C-alpha cells in the first residue's frame, strides 16, 4: 500500500489526510467525498517553481485547471503565484469569480466561440492560445473593432509521439489541436499575425499528451519548436519571447507507475532550450509550463461507503460503492487504473481480491478490476487514491446521481469547498411540460 503526501494511519487504524481522520470527514460530509491534500498541491507547485529559479530562467508555471476547476483551488493557485490555464468560458468565469489575477490567465481550447473570445478581451486576460485559422480571424476582428491589444501564442503540433494512451496524446500530426509544424500551417498562421497592430504574438505553445513518464518526448518537442523559432528569426527578424511546452507529467496511480520528480521534466526542457539558444545565439525565451494532473492528481482521494457484495463463484467478487462512473469516468472511458484501501480498517490485512463496482446502470461501471482490501463489510469506507485530476471535472449526473462534496485538508483543519449536490440541484433546470405550454401561449 502506497500512501501519498500527508496521508498517514492513526492509532485507530483510520486513514488520515492533512492530519484529519477520513472517518470523521465521512461522518461530517457524507460519501462519496473527494478529499484534497492541499499541502501536497503546494509542495508540487513549489517543486516546479524552484527548478526554474535555480536555473535562473524566467518562467511561468500555469495550473492546467481542466484537471480540477473550482473557486477554492484557483484561490490557492493565486496565493502560490501560479498562472492559470483555462479552456472555456466556464473556467474563465470561475477564475473571475475567484478574482484570479487576469494578467496570469491563459485561454486555451480548440473551438473557442466568438463570445468566449470577447469575454477574454472584456477581462483583459494575459494571453490567448490560438488553435486554428478560424480563431485567428475572430481575434483579428475583435481586436480591430475594439482597438484593443491581446497577447497570443500559437499552439502547434510538433509531430512528437508520446508514450501514453491514444485518448490523451495530443502532439502528433493527426490531432484536433493546433497548427501542424511540418506541413506549413504554423508558418501560415505566423504570417497572418506578424506585424498586426493589435495582436502581440509572444511565441509558440505545444502539449504532447498526458501521463507521460519519460523525458525524451519533451526534449524532442522543445527542439522542434526552438528550430522553428530560429527559422522565424532568420527569415522575418522576429524573436519569440515565450516558449510554452505544456504539461502532461505523469503521476503514480498504482505501484506499476514510476513517475519522475517534477524537476526532472523541467530540467530536460531547460537544458534543451538553453543549449539551442547558445548554439544559435538566440535570446533565451521565457519558458511556460502547464502542470495539471501532476499538481492535483495524487493530492485527491475519494472516500466511498461500501454497500452490497456479490460473489460470482470461481470468477470474481463484486464490492459495490455509493459512487462510480458518475464521479469518476476515467476507468470506463480509457481503462485508467487506481489503487484502494479500507479507510476505516487500514491496519487489517488487505488480502481480499475484489472488483470495485459503482452503482451506475452500466456493466462497465467498475472503478478497479482487481483491488486488495480488508474483508468487505457493508458500511466500511473505501479510499481510492489519486483521484484529484479529471474526476470531478469530468463528473456527470448519469442516473441522476448527485455530484460529491469536496473538502480541502491541511494542518489538521478541513474546509468544505464544493457542497454536495442535492436532488433539488439535479432538477433545478428542468421545466415541467405544462409550463412550456403556458410560455408558448403567451
UniProtKB/TrEMBL annotation:
One of its GO terms (molecular function) is diaminopimelate decarboxylase activity. It comes from the Bacteria. Signal peptide: none annotated. Substrate binds at residues 293, 330, 334, 362, 390. It catalyses: meso-2,6-diaminopimelate + H(+) = L-lysine + CO2. The modification N6-(pyridoxal phosphate)lysine is found at residue 66. Keywords: Amino-acid biosynthesis, Decarboxylase, Lyase, Lysine biosynthesis, Pyridoxal phosphate. Pfam families: Orn_Arg_deC_N (PF02784). Pyridoxal 5'-phosphate binds at residues 248, 290-293, 390. SUPFAM superfamilies: Alanine racemase C-terminal domain-like, PLP-binding barrel. InterPro entries: Ala_racemase/Decarboxylase_C (IPR009006), DAP_deCOOHase_LysA (IPR002986), De-COase2_N (IPR022644), Orn/DAP/Arg_de-COase (IPR000183), PLP-binding_barrel (IPR029066). Pathway: Amino-acid biosynthesis; L-lysine biosynthesis via DAP pathway; L-lysine from DL-2,6-diaminopimelate: step 1/1. Its EC number is 4.1.1.20. Residues 42-296 form the Orn/DAP/Arg decarboxylase 2 N-terminal domain. The keyword Oxidoreductase does not apply. The keyword Cell division does not apply. Its cofactor is pyridoxal 5'-phosphate. Homodimer. Belongs to the Orn/Lys/Arg decarboxylase class-II family. LysA subfamily. HAMAP family: LysA (MF_02120). Specifically catalyzes the decarboxylation of meso-diaminopimelate (meso-DAP) to L-lysine. This is Diaminopimelate decarboxylase. It comes from Sporosarcina contaminans. The gene is lysA.
